[in-house]
Amino acid sequence: MADQSIIRITKELCDIQKDSDLSLAVACRDSDVRNVKALIIGPHETPYEFGFFEFTVKFNKDYPRKSPNVTAITTNAGRCRFNPNIYASGKVCLSILGTWRGERGEEWSAAQGLESILLSIQSLMSSNPYENEPGFEDANEASDKKNQADYVQKIRHETLRISVMQRMEEYLGLAPDGTPSASAKSAADQEDNDIDMQDLDETSVPFEPFKDLCKQRFLWYYDSYLAAIQKGKSEVKDGQNFSRMPFEGSSNAMEGKFNYSELERRIRNIKKALDAELEMWAADGAKENAKEGTIAVNLQNQYEQVIEAFKADDVPHHVQLENGNPFVWIITYFGPPMTNLDGGLFRIKMHFSPRFPEEQPRVRMETKIFHHRIAADGTICYFPNYSKREDVRSHIASIVAALEEEDPAYDPRTLVNPEAHTLYWGKPEDRKAYNRRLRRSVQQSMEDFPEA
Ligand SMILES: *[C@@H]1O[C@H](CO)[C@@H](O)[C@H](O)[C@H]1NC(C)=O
Ligand SMILES: *[C@@H]1O[C@H](CO)[C@@H](O)[C@H](O)[C@H]1NC(C)=O
Ligand SMILES: *[C@@H]1O[C@H](CO)[C@@H](O)[C@H](O)[C@H]1NC(C)=O
Fold first, then answer.
1. Residues in the ligand 1 pocket, defined by CB under 6 Å
2. In terms of domains, do 262 and 314 share one?
3. Residue positions annotated with a catalytic role
4. Is there a single domain that holds both residue 58 and residue 157?
């Protein structure tokens, strides 16, 4: 009989995965539910904005009577303290974890759970984390004001450098200078030796559950990263040292110097490598298709079913495959009447990975359009239904829903087009300006459409 703690942990993991909170993710190996990895995406309007912070959470048999152990992994190998309460060693100081003196009622109880722990950690990532440190809560000495601003400034730099760029470069096998890294070269050698992955033990394969998620999110937030770099550049000079905070110790600090020019160069390389993946997916997909591989056949079948379903339901949109390749779908999307998209004609491209659905499709609007859910490069911010990740029709429905959504609730996690987002969520006259620009781009789409 499975013990109670396993049942409870499994249920909590499912709930978080099904939940639509776009800033939290959790995963574990099937064989090891007690060792969970968690990802927290840094909140909007903080120096942690859209950073990828990873944690391990270890549960033992006493859970939920006892709290789990939580360790921060995103520490630049133990060298970076990202927050007064998140140490370079990985220690996370929180009263509900029993690692921080707390007020009554803040300590652990079985009513808490993994999600409340992650939300508590996320709330440490505030717009002024200097105040998390006891004794500095209501600091208003001039020197403290200066420290607060300096602290925010260095956290923003290290969020970009460590939590975003180091992670992405590792995923993509890039060295910071943009060349393939040593580990990427050895991985390529291994592929040449044709190691059969099936023969490898689960634990010898790196467990990187957030790789695809972070790539997708990187594409969502790319313009925000660039904006943060521009802001940093305007505030500090390259080569300037980080200032030390009064609460930082010698081996528990955030040290280094600013180099935003370097960050800008690196982030552009990462974007280039991600864009190049799509061409590789298409080429590898075409080979899979020639071999009639399982995923090629599956996508081909789904394609035929989608065409049938569109016909049956009188959906106006068209779908076709690029060069007959089931890994590249082209959707012609007609803006629905009586909406802001009325009269528009748009081309949407869906790229599928040879590892679909483990790697989720990348979806781009090829037609230029000014829309708060579409990034400058056309990346569409939509939420696939977690339990239908392998179902392309469900993806298409979610894409259409994102484009057509009326009166969405404010959600800064969908901030993929900073300019459109600011207008959309601004004052009434800003919303009007947004609508005008959207309408203009919709009219333009008709004139520009290739076959029109
Ligand atoms: C958590 O850490 C404490 C102290 O290091 C240790 O005694 C305990 O066994 C750990 N619990 C788990 C679930 O790993
Ligand atoms: C920024 O980083 C690059 C690459 O490491 C280096 O060549 C350059 O000297 C750095 N700039 C400053 C001002 O430190
Ligand atoms: C910056 O830090 C380095 C070592 O961390 C030190 O050698 C250098 O003197 C510092 N520069 C300034 C301007 O404080």
1. 58-60, 69
2. no
3. 93
4. yes
